[in-house]
Design a protein that fits this description.
210 residues; elongated; disordered C terminus; mainly alpha; disordered N terminus
Length: 210
């Protein structure tokens, strides 16, 4: 039996179709809600027969899983890009708040899929969870480096989890009330400086670190 050879053109077309499916899925999730994604609506918008989608994805859960992994990869890139401007620990904390909120504003469907649980029964694959936990471990390790600059009995993990809770709370409330406003504006989007003041007063010896 001759070995089947896939041409570069066929591979290119397949990759383009996969990307178009993901882009269309994101549009549906953004417009109708993350849990509202359906293969029927996706096929309709792609001008395809629904069974044809299974040539590219095994089902809706694989699409969710692919987007979950994409979301965390994009968030890592966004966070690292924002943090490159930090000159001290205060800057780093503030930029973490701003990066999380700005990512959510720009990518609400990925933010909800990655950081909330909008799809009943959806459990990310092992590979996707490794991607998300890898980012979390990176942040925990960074907290270990600056923990000595803080006046607190909290562990590095507890410090990070406290900041995550505050960051997510502000972001979720901002998106629920004024998602059209940028970071720094609105009832909750403008509270990052106030939260930074609270953290600095609570962790008295906060200072510069490298």
């Amino acid at each position: 039996m001759k070995k089947r050879i896939t041409s570069p053109r066929r591979l290119h077309n397949h990759a383009n179709t996969v990307q178009a499916i993901l882009d269309t899925a994101r549009a549906i999730m953004r417009e109708e809600g993350v849990a509202a994604l359906s293969m029927q609506e996706l096929a309709r918008r792609m001008d395809m027969r629904a069974p044809s989608l299974y040539n590219y994805f095994s089902g809706k859960r694989e699409i969710y899983d692919t987007l979950f992994r994409l979301g965390f990869n994009l968030f890592r890139e966004h966070l690292n890009d924002q943090l490159k401007d930090a000159t001290n620990l205060q800057d780093e904390l503030r930029l973490n708040f701003e990066a999380y909120m700005s990512f959510a504003i720009a990518n609400p469907e990925l933010y909800q899929l990655c950081f909330e649980r909008p799809v009943p029964g959806f459990v990310p694959s092992k590979a996707s969870l490794e991607t998300s936990f890898g980012l979390l471990q990176q942040v925990y390790q960074r907290a270990e480096q600056f923990k000595g600059a803080l006046d607190t009995d909290l562990s590095a993990q507890q410090i990070v989890d406290t900041v995550i809770a505050m960051t997510h709370g502000l972001t979720a409330l901002h998106l629920s009330n004024e998602p059209h406003l940028p970071v720094g504006q609105g009832r909750f989007g403008s509270l990052i400086p106030a939260v930074m003041t609270i953290l600095e007063k609570a962790w008295l010896t906060i200072g510069e670190t490298t």
